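Here comes a specimen:
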Amino acid sequence: MTIMPPNCGTQCWLCDLPIHMDTYVGCSHGCTYCFTGGFAGKTYTGIKDLGIKPKNETNALRAFIKGKRTKETNWCDWPIPLHWGGMSDPFQPCEAIYKQSLECLKVFAETNYPFVVSTKGALIATEPYISLLAKCNCVVQLSMACEGYDKIEPGAPPFEERLRILKKVSKVVPRTVCRIQPYLAGHREAIKANLARMKEAGAYGVIIEGMKWDRPGKGLVKVGRDYTYPYRVISNDFEYLRNEAHQVGLKIYAGENRIREKGDSLTCCGIDGLDGFRPNTYNLNHHLHGDLTKPTEAMTLPKTAGCFRPNWQDTLNGRYIDAQSFAFAMNKFRKDKRKLVESSFALSEEGKR
């Protein structure tokens, strides 16, 4: 069983909650668009052939909550909310067998440590999970868009069942948010029609991020390493859905970096205004939108830039970054990766294609 502490991904330069954890490697939802699970373009055949493996996160989670940091997380000197379920669903069907997420949920309930969990699994609304959730300081993000997604998410609960899950979970946690990630433009009207239903089921808001492909396609543009919708498409669709969301009383957040400022908060995960949920705002997402935050003390110390190293693949730069501070690396990334930064936030003509 793999033992992995909460870790910081390479998106530390733009993400407000970059420290994440997963309780499984692999996922049985079989979403045809998911390259993490390796299903894009393949036929879903069921759970047996997926090679899903549990991670032993419980002890590492306790250590992180007590303040122990790794080379990738030592820049963080406060109880930042953890993002749980970034690469694999914690409450997918195999959890009924391995119960790794149950053990972590017990730790969260015991410590009251803040976290955001992303799922489309049905187990979260069943016992003993839902009773433990009621004791937690958490935001639950339920991935759901509309009925049209059911065919492309064959191993996950259908949309109507997810609405019932949302209603149950919303009654026991501080906040629930609906993740429309990925957003598929062809389903815009169906998504619009479901926003009021999401609100009625207890959702506080929705997050929208356009679909990303790993290869060129008709009508797509390249942003960073991905191919996605042109800026005008995702921007216009977001504004269209924002109007409807606000009319029915939902907050709306742009998980899409190019339009981040169009959402109700630059922190796109739906934690704004919650006590005890302090994100990292010392990043380029905030700085480039005029929120000129200062680094914490830990961010100014040497050897706190480990999470940046994968962004420089050569050995010389890698060793140099290892010795620097998180704050130094943030500024160096902005200078060295200017083209990527500007296109990611639609600050260049390339980013606004």
Notes: The chain is about 30% helix and 15% strand.
